[in-house]
Amino acid sequence: MSGPVTDAAHGPAAGGATDAMTDPADDAANDAAAGAVNSAAAGGAAEPVAGLDVAAGPFGELREQLLGAAERFGSGPVAEILGGLVEDVDRALREPLEIFPVCHHSPSSATAMIRRLRDKRPKVVYLELCEDLRPLLDELHNCTLPVALQSFATDIDGFPAEWAPLSVIAPITEASAEYQAISYALTTPGVELVLVDRSTDHVFQWEPHGDDAGKGENEDEETALHGDAVGVEIGDLRPRFAELEEHLLHHGKVRHWSEWWDQYVEQPLVDADYDTYRQVMVLIGSLFRRLRPEGSARTTVDEDRERYMWTRIREHLASSGADPADCLYVCGAFHAASRVAEFGLHGATGTFEISPRTATRWQYGLIPSSHSAIEAQFGLAPGSVSIAAATWSKALRRSGLKPFRLGGAQATKKKPAKAAQPPAPPAPVTDRLSGFLTAAPASDGLDEQELLGWCVDIVRLARKNGYASSTADAIAVYETSILLAGIRGRRRPTPYDFQDAAVTCIEKDAVPGRRDIARLCEILLGGDRVGSVGYDALPPLARDVLDRLAPLGLDLEKRTIQRALLDLEADPHLRPCSDLLWILRRLLPHGAVQPIMGSRRLGERSIQESWDLAIGRNMRSIVELGYEGVTVEQVLEQRLRKSVHAPQATAAGALAAVEDSILYLGSRRFTDELGARAVELLAAERTVDDAPEVLRRIRRLLTHYQATEPELPAWCQAFVTAGYAHYCTLLPTAFTDDDTGVRQVAAMLGFLLGMESLALSLGCDHTQLELAVQQSHPETPAKVALLWAAQTQLGLLPLPELRRRCDELLDNPLVVPSFPLYLSGFVQALEPAPALASLVVEVLSKAFARLPDTVLLPWLPKLITTLKDHAAEMVPVLVREAGRTFPATLAALDSWVPPWSAPEAPAPSAAVPDGGPAGELLAAHPAACDAVAALLGLAPDWPTTATTTPGAAPEVTALLTEHPATADALAALLS
Question: What is the DSSP-derived secondary structure letter of residue 262?
Fold first, then answer.
């Protein structure tokens, strides 16, 4: 049987004893390894363990061989490390509580676990997993693996606020030793499962947020299943020493660590007996532990975890009275080689104090996981977990082992135990390492049927995905796989060799489909299996969502995108589904619930809607919503309330929350609460950065209430009055402040001038606005133009005077280069004063007509960029006004005269009123009219033309002739 060191080739990291005992050649490799070890050995050596005599134990001979091999390096630290490896193995195997070392998602660990559980049948299983995740394990029978145990917290207490939300996940796959131990404990009567690792609260106490070295970058949909959670796994075995890892990869002729581990550890150990597996895993864990750089913060955390776990184990043994001989401690191989004083049942006690948890309220649940998500989060090579799953399946078929599984709800009911043979007494510990490290590789020839099947299947998959592959490609992949394996010194092609050969022979310059050949190989060799969480294991909110969407008639737990068609007029019972979908769109990530047809805005009501639903793909997000409330409406209400009371809350954000409350919740009480908060935030603001957003939202809300309510809500009235006073106060400062943009000042004026009538009706004073405008003295051109527009709108600046000022700007050669800025101000002024659109068109037309090309051409790019940056939304208003001003046809353009260039028509002469009785009376007695004119401050001016000609007013004469009674009565009264 081949050991991990013998095949790894030529370095003390792969086992210095092997080189000493077999092949003393390859001095260059030895020198490189020696340099790597010497650079790390200063912190790798440890003090000898008191009372541990390795020479008298079963590994004494191996220790002497390793020390002899170390003499070739001529370095003291090397001898200490190699001797310490044997000490760690001896110490772990002498421990009364049996330690089972594992590596995460390792098929060899899983097969060894099955063998050991069936032989030993322990009554207590101690598992290296966060102790507060224990209740979740009972729900695994409702899930399809892989899934992840999750601990989640949004309301944190004791951690920095910027860390929120906190999330910890622990993925579980079927081809893992931890799942086999869990399944055994949950399906075997009388077996207790105890989780002994630190709680999730301690994860963040000991490892600051963002400092987890195992986190990867989630780029696509499948790898994003874990989000930005901190990953917790059992048995992270990877050298944290860059030089060592580079050395192993180079001499092992592999591309990445996952391939090295599969080639030199998994394959030799997957069929090994338990004792050999146990000793080799502890040896590897000890090697990586001793070669870790000195002073590593990760080492400190790992040692505290080991102290924590042994403290919990001793506490449980003391309280339960369990016999250590009937217990099994499952932990990572790195921790099995621990050198802390608290190690073992007889380790130091009272030297480690477990800190209390913070007041953070943690929520727990199960979320779907996938092979690619595990690989991305823990820095594994793409496809490595899928290949491990394929290796696991092959090992089960070859060995005939029956794994432990949690089938369904009924499987968790522990049945009476069948009569079984008592467990065999433990065999004495013997040295299996020496034979494993020195034995020649076992003959394991080429499995032609397996390789041929791979080659045929990859060609078939390539054809389905658009590649022009043929039978010749299958033959080429077969031969190239064997060739690559021979070049790399392997007895048979590995899945990685096959993948490289397929890429070389089939993949061309361009990928015709969505998947490349490397991805197709991963699918072929095991696929990216995606787990699912069963209905019964979901939190109440997730079950409520599925129940309320049941009328759609879709299987929402599928991971495919499904189209839902809702005819809300024909099927009114679907309207609750529509309401729920809009809320989910507001809460879930983009793409989870996507409307294709239909909208939800103030004043609109959809008749028909079409949705693309990816609920199954986003079940993790729905599960996390369940940590915040019982229904989605409750979660949305909590989030809206939290957003408006946050330290960074603004009036614009509060108005957005008001709008969401109207659209999705329909609670008048809650909406009024949010609106009152918006008034408070507006009054407390000291800047006007959000003025455009405030103006846009309050206009929309006022329009909605005016159309649907008999009167405005009290908070709306208060918002208008508070905003009027607030912006009047800040207007003079905003005009002169360089940090306040033109858009913000225009929005303030839009609020003040556009809502002035409503504000005055609510008790505001117009004089306050006039004073604010008169106190404003801007200096920048755009704000000067805004001020002129506001003065014109208020009647303080006549329109002819404003036109004259604009003409002066165009006539002044010193001002022409900055004229685009003035124009930008005028365009922004269309918000508060839309009547100035014709003037802006006139000014712009005059500029193009008057300015010479030498001035106009350099000026034009600046004009365009100014309008684009500062007034993009107002340009369509100008275009419409220009369309009304300019002629519609080309023929009419020749004879067209601009309105501002047309000669002014003479003022019509005032018509002299005709005479008649009234005229005669006034002419005969002018004193009364002169007195009235003097009272009004007017000069008395009587017409010179006679207006008392008889018959000048025939209508009056005819009226008096036909009805003389009135005139006679008046004459009698005056006489």
Answer: I
